Amino acid sequence: MDMHANTSSSVNLSTTPPNLSSHNSSLHPFLSSCFNSLSGWPIFTTFTITNILLLLPLSIFILYLGIKQWRKQRGRESMNPIDVFTYHMVGMELIGICGSVSCCCGAFIDHGALMWVGCNAFAINSCIKMSFHVLTCVERYVAVVHPITYMTLSKSGGVMFRNISIACVWIVCAGLIALRLLLNQNFTMILFFCNLVFSLIVISFCSLSVLRVLIRPGPAAEGRQQGKADKSKQRAFITITAIMAVLLVRFGGNLVCMALANSSVLSVSASCVVRMMGIWFCLPSSYVLPLLFLHRAEKLVCLKYKSDSS
């Protein structure tokens, strides 16, 4: 899913837009040869199949749980903001899977238009969906560092701010996809790294701020209440740290792959393989929010949960 953010960063989608009415439309020579080569195309295909087998059912299951929870809570209380961000995240993952499948099919049947549209849609989607990682961390940051403000917003206005933020992410994503398809300007690689660096800066700030609150000795409070507050802060810190870790893996892996692929040491074929392999560093960031969601819902079968969860 994250594949094309990487395909934009790792395969360098500076393609000339094909004539969408023509089945003989062609991509950039390097991209076309990379997808059609025996070394590059199988890597792309394996990545897509992995997402279909693992990420697709996971996303559908989370949306199913979300609909079930919404029906249960309808009219009583608002949903957990982190859960809402996760639902939208997996929604983008589904779009990304469709894009990667289109790109893969386009390469298989040698249909340049299908490949170009799918790859570019996947690239933009993969870049922008990191915004939901940022929103999740900012929400946890406000809850821990500014609890009074968070409680006030949760009672009035918080849902509106959350919905506006989510709507902005979707509007930006749709706008950039349309812009990329209309213009002969490749900005996906720049967008990918700029958005990734920005996300890491914001998430690092949130992580350090929450850690500072966590280790700072608070006023002597009732033992049970203080214990619950500390556990809540610990969960927030773990969530933010997990997100930051997978984004660091994504950033570092893509950076190394780009550096190796652009070096003069590797042949064209080896460079193609290295660029394509970079997409695998994007996988962890696709799974972190869904897995954290399942952990909160106590649905991870590999873990044992207490009957009286605190």
Descriptive notes:
The protein is mostly helical and 310 residues long. Helices cover 76% and strands 0% of the residues. Helix 6 packs parallel to helix 9 (188-215) and helix 10 (223-261) runs antiparallel to helix 12 (283-296). The radius of gyration is 21 Å and the shape is globular. Mean pLDDT is 79; it is low at 1-30. Its main location: membrane.
What is the topology?
Blueprint: H1 3-10, H2 29-36, H3 41-73, H4 81-108, H5 112-128, H6 130-145, H7 147-155, H8 158-182, H9 188-215, H10 223-261, H11 268-277, H12 283-296
Helix pairs in contact: 1-5, 1-9, 1-11, 3-4, 3-12, 4-5, 4-6, 4-12, 5-8, 5-9, 6-7, 6-9, 6-10, 9-10, 10-11, 10-12
Keywords: G-protein coupled receptor, Glycoprotein, Membrane, Receptor, Transducer, Transmembrane, Transmembrane helix
GO cellular component, one term: plasma membrane
Transmembrane segments: 41-65, 85-109, 115-138, 159-183, 189-215, 236-261, 273-294
